[in-house]
Amino acid sequence: MEPPTISFFELFHCLKGLTFALLLLSSSFFGTFFFLMPLMPFAIFRPNLFRQLTDFLIGFWLVLPSSLVEFMFGVRIHLQGDKIDRNKPSLIIMNHRTRLDWLFFWNALWRMDPWLLTTEKISPKSTLMFIPGAGWAMATNAFLFLNRNFAFDRFRIDRMISYYSQTSRNYQLLLFPEGTDKCPIATKRSERFAEKNGLVKYKYLLHPRTVGFVHILKRMRKEKYVDFIYDVSVAYGGRIIQSEFDLLLLGLTPAHVHFLVQKIPISLIPEDDEQLEQWLNKKWAEKEEILRRFYSTGEFLPTDANTEKSFQKTELSPQAFHLQLIISAVWLALTAVWTIIFFGFLSAQIRWSCTLLTIIYFVGLQLYFGGFELFLARLAAAQSVVSKESVVKSKGSEANNTGNNEASEKHNKMNGQ
């Protein structure tokens, strides 16, 4: 049985949650101001270098929030199953129990391979891109923001997956096929959908939205940009904190977060749209059974009764733990230094002029292009067209030169005769 969802708070925990929020907002804002803004010329003139630098900087900044939820709130992460290969482009699908699943998943990725934080891309709700500092950093990191409306999201999906492919870097895209977290409202909506369509009512899941999943996978296949699908199941122990607002205002996290990762080669996934929908629905039925067993036994067990195989457990290594401490301390120290410089050394005119410039830059790109990440994608597409035209012209020039040389040789031979 699932643990209860917490909705009450104590003053001490509330102060802890607000401190957590203040640290992240200030670190992300000053990081954007002092680190990302100076890199912006590279986005136009050296886009590959820009992508490498921002993937590295933002990826390892993610160590800070994922570390703080462990060190400040005491959440314990448990990981079973297959490891994700950061060298292969992949699609990760996960049930969306709470609005914090993606945050705790960073802790799981760190346990598998710290570099996965630099290659994983998530698909958050588009409203998050408007958060000053944090939203701008997510856009710079080329996250796939979605409105949860396929008519609006289709263009954004196609553009961003093409961009990932054009970077020649291997990313792992995290998708929540359910479309939203399993809050009471979404649960009732899913149950009504099940009744209307003669489907089983899930206790631990929402019925997945197959249209977006099918389109994303087809686009990744078209771009030859998917080698594996990773099916991730997330479950909670002790208590459930439903949203980021609850984390900040209640100052609490779940006591335990459990992840099960199952690796599936893309060659085993059907290509037909209808068969893909059936495959995803079957996966969700299996996931419901996996979660039912988990909440009955306290661990993830294979659904195949004929196998004695157990899922491999991955623990946080001492080296990864020490590196986590060091990186978190560096970011906290940088945040303190940036704060002192911003308020203590910069004049009010410079301070607010640069702040206004940063706001105008990101908000302007959001309004004109739909987001900084789409601006990057458009730049990459334009540069790809120019590159292809250059190749065509080069081949045409070579062909003309070859033809001229052959004509010249023929003319010389005739003169010689």
Descriptive labels:
7-stranded mixed beta sheet; 417 residues; alpha/beta; single chain; 13 helices
Question: What can you see in these coordinates?
Answer:
- The protein is of the alpha/beta class and 417 residues long.
- It has one domain: Glycerol-3-phosphate (1)-acyltransferase, CATH 3.40.1130.
- Helices cover 60% and strands 10% of the residues.
- The chain has helices spanning 11-45, 47-61, 63-71, 101-112, 134-140, 150-166, 184-197, 210-222, 244-250, 273-297, 318-345, 348-369, 372-416, and strands at residues 76-81, 90-94, 120-122, 172-175, 228-237, 256-265, 313-314.
- Strands 3-4-2-5-6-1-7 form a seven-stranded mixed β-sheet, sandwiched between helices.
- Helix 3 (63-71) packs across helix 4, helix 3 packs across helix 11 (318-345) and helix 8 packs across helix 10.
- It is globular, with a radius of gyration of 25 Å.
Fold blueprint:
Elements: H1 11-45, H2 47-61, H3 63-71, E1 76-81, E2 90-94, H4 101-112, E3 120-122, H5 134-140, H6 150-166, E4 172-175, H7 184-197, H8 210-222, E5 228-237, H9 244-250, E6 256-265, H10 273-297, E7 313-314, H11 318-345, H12 348-369, H13 372-416
Helix pairs in contact: 1-2, 1-5, 1-9, 1-11, 3-4, 3-11, 6-8, 6-13, 8-10
